[in-house]
Structure formats: C-alpha cells, structure tokens
C-alpha cells in the first residue's frame, strides 16, 4: 500500500528581509515534517537577508523581483509559479501577497488559501479600496491564521473576518539555541565593558516600535545608574533621527546603535534586561520570545499579545505605552538587583519551555494546515460550520454564562460558529463575548409585554442564517421567545439547556409547566447529569405525556484543566488573601444568595472554631445577603477569621489557598465552583443536593452532608482539619475525577456531537471517530472512555 502524498504548501511573502514575521516564515517552513509536507516559498520582490537560510534547509524558493507598480506582471508570474508547483494550500503574509496571492490562487486553481495575519492593528486606517478588496476576496479565503489571541477582536470586529475562519497559533522558539549564559566575549565587539549593566531593545527602527520612549527612559535610568548602557539592535530609516535624540538627551556615549544583526542569540547574551516599548499593533514578537528563552527579564509595554507572553511580576514587567517614566521605574530596580533579574529570567525561560517552544508551534501549524486542507466538517457531511445562537435575557457573572463563554472559545470553528443575543441588556459579560470574537446582538427589550422583541429576534436569526438556537432554562423570557422566534425564523434546531434541579425544596420549578407541555417543539433537552433527568421526570413531569417528551442528552459541565497548583501557588494565594501560611483554611465560592445558604456554613464554622481557633473561612462572592451574613459572622464571634472578598475574577489564583472547599446550598445543578476546586486538588464538603452525588463520592473525593445540617457540616470539616493525610488522598482523587469526567474540551465536543446529529450530518460519528449512541425516546452523546454514562430508563 503506497504512502499518502505529502501536502504541498506554498508560502507567498513580499520578501524575506530581517523581521519577526519573516523569521517566523523561514523557521516554520524549515521545520515542517517532510514526511507529510512539501513546502516552498515565493518572494514577490527581492530575496532578502533571510532567503539563503531556505537553501540551507533544502526548501525550494524563488524571488520574482517585482516592484509594487508591477502588479499585473507580478500576478502573471505568480500564477505561473503556482501552476508549476501545484500546491494544495497557499499561505499568504503581507498586503501585496494577500491580494495578489489570492487572485493568483483562484487563477491557478489552488484548492485552499490561508492568510496569516501578524499585526493587531493598522498604523493608518485602511482605505475604501483595500476594504473592498478584502470583502471580495474573503469567499476564496479558507482560513485566517493569527499569532495571538489579542488579534481576534481586531480581525473579527475591525476587519470583519468571519470568526469561524480565525485560528490562533502562537509563535515559538527553540530554547536550546539560547543558553542564557552571559558571554563577556560578545561585549567588546559591541562597544560594551564587561561590568556594564546593559538594557537592550531588538526591533526594526520603525515608528510603531517607539524607540523615542526607550531613549527617554534610558536618560532617566542613566541619571540613576552610572553603569547603565543601552543597546539598540535594528536598522531603519529613522536611525539618524534617533541618534540625534540620544545626543539631545545627553546619552549618546551610553547608547550603542548596532544596526541589523543576524546573531541575535549572541547579542542577547550581552544584555541584562530586555525592552520592547511599542505603542501599537505588536502581536507576539519573536524578539521577546527569544529574550525569554535566553532567560532575560523583560520590561515591555502592555499592547497586543505581549500580556499573553509576560506575566507581570513573574516573568517580567508590563508598563503603559508612551510612558518613559514608568519604563524607567521598572528598569532601575531590576538593574540594581541581580537576584531579581535571575529570578524573572528563569521564570521567563520556564514559560517558553512549557508553552512557547518552536516544536509546539510547528505541530500546531501542521495540524491547522492539515485541517484546512481537509476540513473536519466535510468528513461529517457538513458543508459549512453550524451557526449556533444562544439567547439570554442578559449576561450575568454566573455559572451558565461563564461556562458557555469558555465552551464557545473551545468549539472547533470548522464545526460550530457561535453568537449571542441578549433580549434586554448586554450585561457584564457581553464585552468578554465580543472580545473573544463572538457577535453579540442586544434587542433592548423594555418590559414583559414589549411586542417589538419577537420580530427583532426573528430578524436577527434570519439575518445570521442560524442553524440552531440554544436557550438556558433560567432565562424565562428567552425560554419562551427564543423557541418561538426559532420556529418563526424556520431555524432547524432548538435546544433547551437545564442547569438546575432540586427546586422543589424552595417551592419552585426548573422548567415552567408551559415549557414542559411544549417540549415536543424542542429538538433536545441538554442535561448536566443523569440524576438531573431523573429529577425532571419524577418531579416536573418531563416525558410523562407525548407533548412533554423530547430527546434528552447529558453534556456535563467542564473546566479547562491546567497544571496542579504547587506549594508556591498555595503561598502566593494565602499572601494575596492575607492568610497565615500554616492555618487550616476552608473556602466557598458562590453568590451570596438564599440558594447558597451561607448561614449554614457560618454556623458550622463557628462550631469548628471551638476545636480549631486558628482556622479561617474565605467567602468569595457578592450578592444581596452580604450585609446580613457579615452581621451573622459578627454575632457568632467570627470577626477576623471570616474573610469576605466580594466578587473576584481571579478565583483560580485564590483556590490554592483552601484546604477544603465548602458548599452549603439548598439546591444546585452541577456547580462549576466545585469542579474548579476539584481540578485544583481540593477535597469538597458539600450538601447532598443537585447533581453533587454524581460528582463527589462521599469519603473518596470529600463528603456530602444533609441540606441545612450545620452540625454534620462542622463534623466533616473538623475531621478533615485533623487529618492532613486524608485531605491529601481526597485531593488526589478529586483531581483525577475532573480529569476523567469534567474537561471543558469534552463539554464542547458533546455540544458539537449533538448539533451535528440534529443537523442530520448523515453520519453517527464525529471526525474523531467517537460514536453517538441513540435510543428511541432518550439518547446520550457517547462520552470518552470512563466518562459518566448517559440516561437510562
């Protein structure tokens, strides 16, 4: 049996002069797996300084030597080259390449076209002609690659690119090329002394790199440190003006302009602190990655994708753009502390090794190229992504809204293209949905009987050509209007997601009677756990009559499972909360509402304090009961031991401070906070309500106690406080439980499988080969190995 043909990929660029994007191209093509890929490169203009590197790596390359004014001849030559090489995919970078390359790809009948975007903005507004060209050429563009998540708003909202076509692949470097060891032999050739403290910037001398801020900050640093010297690595037309500014600031003898260098690794060994001070459009700069790989601390402006690379105070420092004083304020202490420089540099290199290696970047690029060449959706019989719209009354900082934001981000854009509609107001999370690249429509519903809402919603669904509408059960207006609008707009699929249960405890229902009586109009009811389905059948009449029946699908909530927090994370979290390092700490993350019954936890904690007077309780969240609960804590004599933090968005950073996670709720579904705590390796003590019995096995991952029983809750907390070994065993089991059942990726794949099945994709399997089990009345998406089973009658 013959081996499959290699994928032919042609990269088309303006030239290969020295620059971050150009180095990205030459590095990537030389590392593509030649068993699977057959790369080539076309330069529309001259070769450029990096062109010889392609010959050294054996990648075929050609330069057309065409100027911008020779566009017709350049197009003709490019069509000829593409016909000769017959690529399966053409990858384009740079405006001239994007325009001529797409036209040439159409004329040469190249099957797939990718535009690789390396900027986060435009120095000057795009003219009407360029915007028109981009619109006209989008239908023949199969994907837009980016290098930083910060590009997504620019690409989607500013450029108007379809979110489903945008794919982010971080740049990467080979850490083995940068040993991080200072090399005294390099300094004399740069005009530096061995004992100088050197601050360096590596960037082309272009306006957006803002070398003026670097030089003005250098003047402030020089006034504070006589050993400070400054290295400007890069070339450009602005060099005479920058040299003049150095003379004007009185630091000409402190600044070395090296011009362009092809030995960046050697130059970095001569630098003590690295700087980038761009004021705009910086994406994922290669120079910064290389400095981090060389274990150099960096002080950079917080623009573009730089905050995705630098963790402020851990791997370097972030400062505002165009602020020389702020830049100098960070540089002076760094130059004065070798220990701090070494610590930040080591953390920077560790982050590169963990997240930004060249190997990882190349692997991701290869996978994306393969996906573009043979999109997953065609294997499932779907010609384009399924357009899913979630309808809410408004976004709130709650479990469902945060979960679905993460699920939207995790969807395969080749399978699902999500969007959001808010009937009344946008709410606090709408901007986060927009920033992630998902369209958000707000209909300004003014009241319960606003008759304009339904036709507006129908109009949005028709305009977006929506394939599926998703409504959560707790938004009553969207539960009614969303399904009615979907039917009026002839949307093929309607889903209702139920995220609660045990509401009979408080005299309420999860699904209103009218919603149960019209379930036959809904294509599927999405459940979080088997026990939730049993509750809805037993207590609310789901499935009892023909009109109350629909498909029922279990898609558990999930979280993104990161590295297990270590001792340093625990110490940092306790420092952040002002907690003693050796105290027993219990914590709860939940809205301060009657549902969560915090008063039960406070009463239990008061009992615990009798035997553990040094124990602390952290209460994360805000809500209508805050003042009442603060008064109760005072009345119970808990002042100083109970810490109310208010609403926090850095919960992940706080969780490592907890020894035990608590939940005292009256009713629940599958609470996200519990999953997040278990993912952080924290045992759980919670009331036995909702689907917690499906999540926490009593005695294995923590403990379950009766609802409202403060004495039982206190007893379990006391037992765990006295037995660190048992806590550690439960912590390990809790983490394993999340890894097995509650990964965010599995939640997204579950929704994808459901949507593909309801769309009539013609196959009962996803492209990854996992099946979809079906039954006559109820069915469940087949989970990965060892995941919880679907509903059973």
TrEMBL record:
Is Transmembrane included in the keywords of this UniProt record? no
MF terms in GO: glycosyltransferase activity
Region annotated Disordered, chain positions = 764-793
* Segments forming domain Glycosyl transferase family: 578-736
UniProt KW keywords: Glycosyltransferase, Transferase
Keyword hit for Membrane:
no
Gene3D superfamilies from the UniProt entry: Glycogen Phosphorylase B
Q: Which Pfam families does the protein's record reference? A: Glyco_trans_1_4, Glyco_transf_4, Glycos_transf_1
Name the InterPro entries for this protein.
Answer: Glyco_trans_1, Glyco_trans_4-like_N
Q: Enumerate the spans annotated as Glycosyltransferase subfamily 4-like N-terminal domain.
A: 18-177, 397-559
Tell me the protein's name: Glycosyltransferase involved in cell wall bisynthesis
> Which species does this protein come from?
Geodermatophilus aquaeductus
């Amino acid at each position: 049996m013959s081996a499959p043909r290699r994928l032919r990929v042609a990269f088309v660029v303006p030239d290969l002069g020295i620059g971050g994007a150009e180095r990205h191209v030459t590095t990537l093509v030389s590392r593509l797996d030649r068993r699977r890929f057959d790369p080539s490169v076309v330069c529309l203009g001259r070769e450029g300084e990096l062109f010889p590197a392609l010959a050294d790596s054996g990648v075929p390359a050609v330069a057309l030597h065409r100027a911008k004014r020779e566009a017709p001849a350049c197009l003709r030559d490019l069509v000829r080259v593409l016909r000769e090489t017959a690529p399966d995919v053409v990858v384009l970078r740079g405006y001239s390449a994007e325009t001529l390359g797409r036209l040439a790809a159409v004329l040469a009948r190249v099957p797939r076209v990718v535009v690789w975007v390396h900027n986060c903005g435009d120095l000057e507004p795009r003219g009407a002609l360029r915007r028109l060209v981009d619109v006209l050429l989008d239908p023949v563009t199969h994907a837009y690659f980016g290098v930083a998540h910060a590009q997504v708003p620019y690409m989607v909202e500013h450029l108007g690119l379809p979110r489903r076509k945008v794919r982010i692949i971080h740049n990467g470097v080979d850490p083995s090329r940068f040993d991080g060891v200072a090399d005294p032999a390099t300094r004399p050739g740069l005009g530096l002394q061995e004992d100088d403290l050197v601050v360096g910037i590596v960037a082309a001398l272009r306006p957006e790199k803002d070398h003026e801020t670097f030089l003005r900050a250098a003047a402030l640093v020089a006034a504070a440190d006589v050993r400070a010297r400054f290295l400007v690595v890069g070339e450009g037309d602005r060099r005479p003006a920058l040299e003049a500014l150095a003379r004007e600031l009185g630091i000409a003898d402190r600044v070395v302009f090296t011009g362009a260098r092809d030995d960046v690794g050697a130059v970095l060994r001569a630098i003590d602190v690295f700087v980038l001070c761009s004021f705009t459009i910086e994406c994922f700069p290669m120079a910064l990655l290389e400095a981090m790989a060389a274990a150099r601390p960096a002080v950079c402006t917080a623009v573009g994708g730089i905050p995705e690379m630098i963790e402020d105070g851990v791997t370097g420092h972030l400062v505002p753009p165009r602020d020389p004083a702020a830049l100098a304020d960070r540089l002076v202490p760094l130059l004065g502390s070798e220990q701090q420089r070494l610590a930040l540099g080591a953390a920077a290199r560790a982050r590169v090794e963990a997240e930004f290696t060249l190997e990882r970047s190349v692997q991701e690029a290869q996978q994306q190229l393969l996906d573009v060449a043979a999109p997953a959706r065609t294997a499932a019989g779907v010609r384009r992504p399924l357009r899913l719209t979630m309808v809410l009354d408004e976004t709130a900082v709650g479990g469902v809204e945060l979960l679905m934001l993460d699920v939207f981000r995790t969807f395969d854009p080749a399978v699902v293209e999500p969007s959001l509609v808010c009937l009344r107001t946008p709410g606090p999370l709408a901007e986060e949905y927009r920033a992630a690249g998902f369209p958000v429509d707000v209909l300004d519903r003014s009241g319960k009987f606003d008759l304009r809402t339904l036709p507006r919603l129908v109009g949005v669904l028709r305009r977006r050509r929506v394939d599926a509408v998703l409504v959560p059960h707790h938004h009553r207006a969207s539960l009614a209007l969303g399904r009615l609008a979907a039917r009026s707009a002839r949307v093929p699929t309607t889903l209702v997601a139920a995220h609660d249960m045990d509401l009979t405890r408080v005299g309420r229902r999860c699904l209103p009677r009218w919603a149960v009586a019209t379930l036959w109009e809904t294509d599927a009811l999405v459940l979080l756990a088997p026990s939730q389905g049993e509750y809805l059948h037993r207590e609310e009449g789901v499935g009892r009559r023909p009109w109350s029946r629909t498909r029922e699908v279990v898609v558990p909530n999930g979280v993104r499972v990161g590295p297990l927090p270590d001792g340093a994370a625990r110490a940092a979290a306790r420092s952040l909360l002002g907690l003693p390092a050796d105290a027993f700490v219990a914590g709860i993350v939940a809205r301060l509402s009657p549902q969560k019954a915090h008063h039960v936890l406070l009463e239990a904690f008061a009992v615990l304090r009798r035997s553990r007077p040094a124990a602390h309780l952290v209460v994360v969240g805000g809500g209508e009961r805050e003042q009442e609960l603060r008064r109760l804590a005072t009345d119970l004599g808990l002042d100083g031991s109970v810490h109310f933090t208010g609403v926090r968005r850095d919960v992940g950073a706080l969780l490592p401070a907890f020894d035990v996670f608590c939940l005292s709720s009256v009713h629940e579904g599958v609470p996200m906070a519990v999953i997040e705590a278990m993912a952080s390796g924290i045992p759980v003590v919670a009331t036995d309500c909702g689907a917690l019995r499906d999540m926490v096995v009593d005695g294995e991952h923590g403990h379950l106690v009766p609802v409202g029983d403060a004495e039982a809750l206190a007893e379990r907390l006391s037992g765990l406080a006295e037995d660190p070994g048992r806590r550690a065993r439960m912590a390990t089991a809790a983490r394993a439980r999340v890894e097995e059942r509650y990964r965010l990726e599995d939640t997204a794949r579950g929704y994808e499988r459901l949507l593909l099945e309801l769309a009539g994709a013609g196959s009962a399997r996803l492209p990854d080969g996992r099946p979809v089990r079906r039954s006559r009345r109820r069915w469940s998406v087949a989970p990965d190995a060892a995941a919880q089973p679907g509903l059973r009658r």
